[in-house]
Amino acid sequence: MQLPIFTARNEQVQVLDSPAQFYQTLKQKISSAQQRIFLASLYVGKEEIELIEHIRAALQSRRALRLTVLADALRSTRESSPNPSSASLLASLARDFPNQVDVRLYHTPSLKGLTKRLVGKRFNEGWGLQHMKIYGFDDDVIVSGANLSRDYFTNRKDRYVVFVQQQQIANYLHSLVLLAARFSYHLASTESPASSEKATAYAGFRLEWDGGDRLLLGEDADGTISEGGTLGPSSSNRLPEQGWSSTAQAAVEDFTRRWHQHTLETLSLSSGEDADVYLVPLLQMGPLRIRQETAAIPQIFHLAASASNLEGKPATVDLTSGYFSLYRPYKALLSAPCKGDVQERTRIICAAPESNGFFKSKGVSGWIPDGYTWFEKKFWDALKRSGRLWNGDDAKGGVEMSEWKKQGWTYHAKGIWYTPPHSATPTLFHVGSSNYGSRSSDLDLECTFLISMNSSSPLSHRVKAEVEGLRADAKERVNEDLFNRPDRKVRWRVRFAAWLVGGML
Q1: How far is CA 80 from its chain centroid?
Q2: pTM, whole model, 2 decimals?
């Protein structure tokens, strides 16, 4: 399928470098938004009262402002009432601004009935989640892997790319959020609106299925967003509460074709003189059989391999994931024996066990860091068998693995960067919500961007600095000595559990 392709100038693509900067940017853009805020995240932290108060103040001061929130139903309702939850926090906005706020919670179609009752809330998220991380404010958008909770604003390392004054990209992403909202539950408050003096941070709620009927905004035929958009749901295309996957798949495919045409028309009307950055959005929605990302990512590896052989010098691919359990086809490509005289240099950053968010967690979830160590070792063993391990000679290429660790921090970054042979800076990078594992490929809703620029551009240098910043805290080399350490021995029960549920991690 042909995908949309957007263009931008270098200064319209910004790279943030810290959780604190991410949080400050969120608050600043909430405060300055005039027409729309649209947020897609796995969840909003139940303790994020300050963030919600910033949104509340913006809605109170600008009655034309509209807020659309898309989060995951399972994660947002993990805590049972009357305990505070992400859903009850968001419900307070739905309660107090019913004509300005639309909150939608996606529930995977893969978990239902008896299975859902037997699994329980502690493990039900393994069947799939709304995982897109899109934060839009008028015509500015942050695309990230970070959620909206305290650790992502303080000491959880992630990536954040900002598109500035990009109306068409903002419309595309807002339309995407509104489309996903059609096959998500409407979060309704069970309480009456409260005055500003009596407003409480949390509210009672219920989840209602309306097939998108009550969405405040919709997409128009020209790709703009308006109240009562012409491409919204009607009685003929409303999605039912059950059995909507194939209809949703067709809607996403139609959305992609429509936006490919929109961007094609924009490219044909522009001279291209101002465009020095090209951006391709990739959707991955396994439950809907939408597989744009898994079709595109292997092409980066093929590009690196062919360029290395053509130039007689290794190209460089940097890859990182906070949850390193590569999708099987990616793993096969990276660990296959080299077919040419020169192989690409691949540098992989994984999270050390201490940097995993589940480190020292209670119960079975405390096994998760060891499970990722086991996946890491199996991949390293495959590299060793195929002769693809880097031997320290940059001229010969190979795959190098290292672990990220920083005192008091956890690691959640994910991304790919491609640097051609004879270039000092990347010309292509990938950013967004995907962790590159089977779960991202098959179970979750993901949105990412593949971004291309000239190696001499300011953006290329900013992106190189981003990679080097990550590598600066990835000093632990992954090798046989590491896996032989007593603290890195993985128990058999963890290995069995990892084998059993590996596709859900």
Answers
A1: 26
A2: 0.95
